[in-house]
Amino acid sequence: MDANGDGYGDACVSPQATIARTALLESGVRVDRGVVIGPYVVLKKDAIIRQNAKIKRHSVIGERTTVNKAVSVGPFAAIGSDNVLGQQTQVGKEVTTQQSVRVDQKSTIQKKAVVEDGVTLGQQTQVGKRAKIGARSQIDAYSIIGNCATVPADSVLLEGTVVSSVACP
């Protein structure tokens, strides 16, 4: 049923949003003005996509996840349920975030990185290509996690911490 007449069932989509015909929006999704949703994107139940965000092709945004203003996701990214992506965050190609991940504003997660359940990334944190952040870790603002680096589960990294890149397998 199209409760609000926008052509997207009970999702709420701004007429100023651009959505590819092949995108799938589940019930309760909200899409604000200026948003661009690429081909074959899936927005799961109750996801919120804020103003001027871009979700690139073949990406999945989990249930109850909020993608804030001017965020870029993907392509081929898998964002888990109950995530919050802060304003102007950049999530790269083939990135995976699991459940209940919080990424503060202006952070960057590069290609093929994995962020496990319950992680918090402070503002302007940089996560390198193919890096892995273990579950429940707290990475404070302005930290840098190098390419292919691993942060063990339950870690706490203080503001400005640098974890060096390692050789990728």
Record the SSE blueprint.
Blueprint: E1 12-13, E2 18-19, E3 24-25, E4 30-31, E5 36-37, E6 42-43, E7 48-49, E8 54-55, E9 60-61, E10 66-67, E11 72-73, E12 78-79, E13 84-85, E14 90-91, E15 96-97, E16 102-103, E17 108-109, E18 114-115, E19 120-121, E20 126-127, E21 132-133, E22 138-139, E23 144-145, E24 150-151, E25 156-157, E26 162-163
Parallel strand pairs: 1-4, 2-5, 3-6, 4-7, 5-8, 6-9, 7-10, 8-11, 9-12, 10-13, 11-14, 12-15, 13-16, 14-17, 15-18, 16-19, 17-20, 18-21, 19-22, 20-23, 21-24, 22-25, 23-26
Poorly predicted regions: none
Give the terminus-to-terminus CA distance.
Answer: 49 Å
Could you describe the largest sheet, including whether it forms a barrel?
Answer: 9 strands, parallel
CATH domain fold name of the domain at 1-94: UDP N-Acetylglucosamine Acyltransferase, domain 1
CATH level 4 superfamily of the domain at 1-94: Hexapeptide repeat proteins
**Strand adjacency order, main sheet:** 1-4-7-10-13-16-19-22-25
Radius of gyration, CA atoms, in whole angstroms: 16 Å
How many helices? Answer: 0
Q: What order do the helices and strands follow? A: EEEEEEEEEEEEEEEEEEEEEEEEEE
DSSP E strands, number = 26
In the CATH scheme, the class of the domain at 1-94 would be: Mainly Beta
Q: Strand portion, in percent?
A: 25-35%
Quick check: average pLDDT? 95
Task: Please tell me what the overall shape is.
Answer: elongated
Class computed from helices, strands and strand pairing: mainly beta
How does this structure look, described?
By secondary structure, the chain is mostly beta strands. The strands form three sheets. The chain has a nine-stranded parallel β-sheet, with no helix packed on it. Strands 2-5-8-11-14-17-20-23-26 form a nine-stranded parallel β-sheet, with no helix packed on it. An eight-stranded parallel β-sheet has the order 3-6-9-12-15-18-21-24, with no helix packed on it. The chain has a domain at 1-94: Hexapeptide repeat proteins (UDP N-Acetylglucosamine Acyltransferase, domain 1). It is elongated. It has no helices and 26 strands. The relative contact order is 0.10. 0% of the residues lie in helices and 31% in strands.
